[in-house]
Structures are given as C-alpha cells and as structure tokens.
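Protein Record: Sequence and Backbone Structure Tokens
======================================================
Tokens: labelled as protein backbone structure tokens, with as many entries as the chain has residues.
Task: work out the structure tokens from the sequence, keeping to the layout shown below.
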Amino acid sequence: MNLRDRQRAETRLLVQTHAIRLFTEVGYDATTVADVAAAAGVSAMTVYRHFPTKEDLVLYDEYDPVTASAVLGQPPGPLPLRIGRALETTATLGSSQEKAFLLARLRLMISVPALRARHLDSQYATADAIVAALGGSSPEEEFRARATAMACLGAAHVALVRWAETDGEADLAGLIREALTSVFGD
C-alpha cells in the first residue's frame, strides 16, 4: 500500500470511528453527515468521498475480499464447509479494538431499520465476492455457489446478532459454526 492509499485508509477509519461514536451516543437519525465531518475534523465532501451514503458510514468494511480469499484458501471439500470455515476464519481476525468496533456497528445495524435493510445489500456484495472468487464455469455452478454463499451468510448473520446480544462475550467463530451446523448439519 502506497502513502496515498494509507492516508485514504486512515481518513476513512477516522471518519467511520467518529460516525459510529456519534451514532451510538446521539442516535443514528439525530446525527448528520455534517456532525460526523465536524467531529472528524474534515469537510462533508471528504466524508461523502469515502462514504457515498450515511448508511455506508456504518456498513462499510473490507471483509468481502478477505472472506473471498479465505474461501479459496480452504482445502477441497463440500462448498458449505469451505465457505463456513472461511467465515469462521474471518471472524477470528482482528484485535479486541476491531472487535469492539464491529460490535458497535452490529448494534447499530440491528437497531436502525434503514441499516437493517441496507445490510442485505452488503450480504449480496459478499456473496458476489465469494462467487467471483470461486469462478464457476457454468450458470448451474454459479447458481449453486450463490445459493450456498447466501445460506452461509444468513447463518453467519444470525450468529453475529447472537454475538451482539452477548455483548461480544460469546465465541464468534463458535457461534458461526453452531449456526452453520443448524443449517447444514455436521
């Protein structure tokens, strides 16, 4: 990553961190993009350059390519197992500070109706990344990969909600494994 990319990533994290803090303290609907910009010490245009919508301030992350790469890194086996293991692996990444940030984002996604609706778009994007990484050679393979990815992501979402309900105390990878077992069996 070059200097310019690092600076963009730092600005994006700074803005998103202030947004999550304000949304949590003041409320999502009561906080404007201008409020976020002022708290982060940047212009509203800078906020919009990094986050095209207010919802993106909560929903944006870089997990899609990480998850897709983790799927490809799994040993051969049934697709639900490969995707499930990749989701478990992705859940174990990150520091305790990153997990606290994820927990705050999840709480907002669960409690704010507009964010719940946009979260489905995020799941489609993750499924797209997984399907593209798997590179199915036929429409039938792509269909099976997409159906499996969405089922796995749905189970993982249920696990994330449970994790948020436990204030992040439960083992997230274990919850994902349990949810996937509920859907696909052992």
The chain has a mean pLDDT of 93. The radius of gyration is 17 Å. The first helix runs from residue 3 to 25. The chain is about 75% helix and 0% strand.
